[in-house]
Amino acid sequence: MFAWRSYKGVILGRIVPEAASHADGFSKMKTISKLSKTPKTPQTSAEKSAAKIQNAFRTHQARLKLKSQAAWQIHEKLEYSSEQTESKLKDMFEKLLRASSSLSPSVSKLLHKAKEKELLCSTNPDAIEVDSSYTGLHIQGPITRKLLVDLIETSQQGKILHEKYVCEILHQARVILKSLPNFNHIDLANLKHVFIVGDLHGQLQDLLHIFDSNGLPSTDNAYVFNGDFVDRGNNSVEVILILLTALILYPSSVFLNRGNHEDIMVTVRYGFHNEVNKKYRNRTVPLLDLFKDVFSWLPLYSYVDAGQAKLIIMHGGISDRINLKKLNSLARNRYVSIEVPPESKQGGKKLTEEEDLEYHQVQDLFWSDPDPKGRKGCRPNDDRKLACFFGSDVTEYFLKKYSLSMIIRSHQVKQAGYEFAHNGKLLTIFSASNYCGGHNWGAVIRWDYNQEDPWIISYKTEAVDLNKVSFNKKVTLFEDPAYRSLMEKILSNKTKLLEEFEKADKTKSNRLSLKIWSEIMLEVLVLDLPWLTLRTRLVQEDTKGIIYRTLFDDFVISNPKFQMQNAGIMEDLYYYKDMLLALFNLIDYNHSGFISRNEFSDIIRIILVDENQNGGSEKASNIVNDEYIEELTSAMDFDKNGKIDFNEFLESFRIVNVKG
């Protein structure tokens, strides 16, 4: 049997741990015992009132659970939907590499690793002065355990470590990482136990809770951190620096696996780039170059000899083409990005057949997921548009081939913080609780020597006490963030949805059947959600069917700063905003906060021509004409200074609740 532990007590900061229960770790509701009575004795008025209260409460609990499950499903599908943009971005990156000379240097520079001598020179901590006004932590002499504790405390206080000391930590960690093989070999005969931590995504409070509950890393308290240390959260810099400091202190008991977010192209979109720029504006470019290099040296996976059990830990998953012998011998530092393939060793952009196979194996290791529909074999990952889905048969074959007991992976947020699959042979662990404003639990694994099964420890940081929340608030607590995100997705596809609704409305009644309406929602939004169930929240209906235009009644995309002739332009901008932001950051490589209107115009052309090229060149030219481009760029350059401040643009338009 699997075991669960709970931890209580005073925690660092405002952390509120809660123990997971086997049956329902994320539902912490009190139950009311049913009042006893004899069948022959009539109920008193007090007993009748108590029974009514009890029934009402149970009904409410059921509603709460159903609504939280529905909201969770929306949250999970929207998470996948956002990552589908990655395949489009990959295409855009490659287009930029082939684009005009004014655009391609930015992408080329990101994908290019600085020569070691130049990198070490530009980030040499000895050459960086510390201003007398700096009042934060100083690193003098060797890194010690006390310094690790001080770094944790100053990070928790919101103090930013000076760039001199950031470089010091990164340089020391880089030396260790370069000396490691492509995988971490962990022998529990010596270490006795190991904690396995999933995605942290810059959520410092979760890392502090893990350390507070399970102890700091040490020679006899080993940890594996399974990738995705950065992006999404606000403290990616602090999280990665704490982990690298622990690695420097305990290289034989702290092990880091690379995740799909330890990728220079992914960090452009999901926040780490912007965080480094915000915290270290005067030294952004050399620091990003150094982080990029450190990421490329992270090991690909970990192997744990736990005595009776043999474990393999990687961030994403496997495929039917994974070959560990090949992975163990490749030059891992070639992969500055897993989004865009490296240049061929033969010279030129096109990889040889062998190099292409190697590249896709690396991509599978970081991006693959178990098949959500329980299908056998491997197939393209339709949710992420990268890597593959793999079935239980692929897992069984892989474990047998390499004499392994279990695969432990991360990469997917889970409501309870963990999930078993493939007959208990595949375990997903995710350690960022309340991820992206959601309500999931975080979890870590503890595996002891000669134990066949793991301990699983679930928790939440800064969790909401549901027992102190009103009935009405309990129902809306779970659903509001998820439904709001869903409305953003719906409104950014408003034109396409209306086109399909009107096409299907043969009688021009402004109504559609439930079946047709739900099919259109699925087809246009590419979100496999229970639309029939969700319709009461999204749209009005009567005896004749769904009144489909009411889908947009309560919400509009509003931007008072931009007055544009074409009403669809704001919708286009919202639809492409994630991609525009990523490309903006690529062009604005020096992080000045501005790019020229001409540069942004080129970006828009690349995106829109690519999106509309399936409709034929005539259709694309009609949509992407000079007048349209001029109105788009003019809309963003509202102070008419010839430059575009994209951050100000993003903050200025929003989805507004009309009735609110």
TrEMBL record:
Highest taxon, organism lineage: Eukaryota
Keywords: Calcium, Hydrolase, Manganese, Metal-binding, Repeat
Pfam families reported for this sequence: EF-hand_7, Metallophos, PPP5
A biological process from GO: detection of stimulus involved in sensory perception
An example Gene Ontology molecular-function term: protein serine/threonine phosphatase activity
Keyword rRNA processing: no
PROSITE patterns: EF_HAND_1 (PS00018), EF_HAND_2 (PS50222), IQ (PS50096), SER_THR_PHOSPHATASE (PS00125)
SUPFAM superfamilies (alphabetical): EF-hand, Metallo-dependent phosphatases
SMART domains: EFh, PP2Ac
EC numbers on record: 3.1.3.16
Xref: InterPro entries: Calcineurin-like_PHP, EF-hand-dom_pair, EF_Hand_1_Ca_BS, EF_hand_dom, Metallo-depent_PP-like, PPP_dom, PPP_phosphatase, Ser/Thr-Pase_EF-hand_contain
Catalytic activity: O-phospho-L-seryl-[protein] + H2O = L-seryl-[protein] + phosphate; O-phospho-L-threonyl-[protein] + H2O = L-threonyl-[protein] + phosphate
Residue ranges constituting the EF-hand domain according to the UniProt record: 575-610, 624-659
Cofactor(s), names only, from the UniProt record: Mn(2+)
Stretches assigned to coiled coil: none
Family: Belongs to the PPP phosphatase family.
Name by which UniProt lists this protein: Serine/threonine-protein phosphatase with EF-hands
Species, as recorded: Didymodactylos carnosus
